[in-house]
Amino acid sequence: MSLYEPNENEFMIARELSKAMMENRRLQRMLGVLFSGYRYLYTDDGEFSDSRHPTIDWMRDTPFELKEKMRERNQSRMEKQQEEAPEDCAAPGAMRS
Question: For residues 49 and 29, what is the distance between their CA atoms, to the nearest angstrom?
Fold first, then answer.
């Protein structure tokens, strides 16, 4: 009975894939810290998520899901700032004449 033995090219692909996965995890963690901040991150038992609405799981959500959740959260944040702004204050980002 013969056992399969990977060739050198397959080892090289596996090493590169492993490096890319490790780099991706570092980038996900950096993005989570920068966007959510340490105060809101849940990091127990290998988790890396922010449970505010919408809940963001920095390690499991796809890049598209992350983008949409970040957009939604920023939109909500901007709407809240506009509601809290005094009547005579220009909206955030508005041009002043």
Answer: 10
